[in-house]
TrEMBL record:
Residues 263-285 are annotated as: Disordered. The lineage of its organism: Bacteria, Bacillati, Bacillota, Clostridia, Eubacteriales. GO terms for molecular function: DNA binding. This is Transposase. Keywords: DNA recombination, DNA-binding, Transposition. Signal peptide: none annotated. The keyword Protein transport does not apply. Residues 189-255 form the Cas12f1-like TNB domain.
Length: 285
């Protein structure tokens, strides 16, 4: 039986054998490992952590000779606006829609069942410990599946576009809505933004963030502002220019438009904090 590694940071003496799928840690010896990917460079440190599910994870810090590329020139033709939401995870200004993963609702339902079973167990009992570990394993699986989906989407956007424009969402404020809090927490919007920003930096690309109060889904390109739009309204027609809008696609295009307007003029776009949203007197009778 192989030794269990101690949690902590190993600054030296670490060896990795790719072909045999093992990693050597001082005092623990050779340990079987599943590597997420191969890497090149000098291993500086390895940090070992144990998750609540009982799994051990090793994070390897490597020094390599890769250089961060020079940022590419930004053009609106090579940019995309991204509107994040609860109806779809992301809607792009190109019209593409990325739905929330189908497994999410199923796993949330299973989580609810396991939590109910946990509540019926006796504190300090073995059954309670087993129930807690089942919940921890489910949480870990959900996190891993969400991370995988976020990595695939963020990598795809950074590869396809030179500039990704997003909105500065007030996640903490939105989570105060108890009816939506769980869905918001499971969406991973903050993690998605983090991935976009560091991947863009590594690739010489750009991420532009507009203010959270911009009226992205209400403002028609002609200037008409829809005061009557509710969360239940997925589409609407402009009474001035007669355009038909999908609210999420419109929001994504406005996010892109606002981001470049700020960049080119150096001024806040309509509805950005510090400026009242535009008011159009040409409202529907």
């Amino acid at each position: 039986m192989q030794a269990r590694p101690a949690e902590g940071t190993y600054p030296q003496g670490v060896k990795i054998h790719w072909e045999n799928g093992v990693i050597y840690l001082p005092k623990a010896g050779w340990i079987r490992a599943v590597f997420s990917r191969r890497f090149q460079g000098q291993v500086k440190t390895v940090t070992v952590n144990r998750a609540p599910s009982g799994q051990f994870f090793a994070s390897v810090l490597v020094e390599d000779e890769n250089q961060v590329p020079e940022p590419v020139l930004e053009t609106i033709d090579r940019a995309v606006g991204v509107d994040l939401g609860l109806h779809d995870f992301a809607v792009l200004s190109t019209g593409e829609k990325v739905p929330h993963p189908q497994w999410l609702e199923r796993e949330l339902y299973r989580l609810k069942i396991l939590q109910r079973r946990l509540a019926k167990t006796t504190k300090g009992s073995k059954n309670r410990a087993k129930a807690r570990q089942k919940i921890a394993r489910l949480h870990e699986r959900m996190v891993n599946r969400r991370q995988d989906a976020l990595h695939k989407l963020s990598t795809d956007l950074v590869r396809r576009f030179d500039t990704v424009c997003i909105e500065d969402l007030n996640v903490a404020g939105m989570a105060r809505n108890h009816a939506l809090a769980r869905r918001i927490a499971q969406s991973g919007w903050a993690e998605f933004r983090r991935q976009l920003e560091y991947k863009a930096t590594w690739s010489g690309k750009h991420v532009r963030v507009i203010g959270r109060l911009a009226p992205s889904s209400r403002l028609c390109p002609c200037g008409y502002y829809n005061h009557d739009l509710t969360l239940a309204d997925r589409q609407w027609d402009c009474p001035i220019c007669q355009r038909h809008h999908d609210r999420d696609v419109l929001a994504a295009n406005n996010i892109k438009r606002f981001a470049f307007a700020e960049h080119e003029t150096g001024r806040d776009t309509p509805g950005v904090p510090g400026e009242r949203p535009p008011v159009d007197d040409r409202r529907r009778p």
